[in-house]
Amino acid sequence: QVQLVESGGGSVQSGGSLRLSCAASGYTYSEYYMGWFRQAPGKEREGVAAIHRDGRTTYAASVKGRFTISRDNTKNTLSLQMNSLKPEDTAMYYCAASQKIGWWSALLSRGYDYWGQGAQVTVSS
Length: 125
Hints:
Largest sheet: 7 strands, mixed
Radius of gyration: 13 Å
Number of helices: 0
Shape: globular
Helix content: under 10%
């Protein structure tokens, strides 16, 4: 049974940092593409960052240069380091796994098979 469990969310002031983690189990982690998505109240879910099986990364323009996605295939974990946080980064953040995805669509949620329950990130001004 595939499980993705996020941790590390919380509240921080504008300009601060947070690190999200996602623990994966129930599948061969290294064979999956992984992504971080977020959804703010009243808005659609959007892709934040994704990491290829081979370690390549891609980011949404809104977070590029501030967020860093990484994976540890020995520990089956995914991380998102978030720096210089802004109030508009406030959202529920989800990690997701995909076994087969076109890399060009890595930031589109429809390509992902499994999802975590989410971790809330709140940035105050």
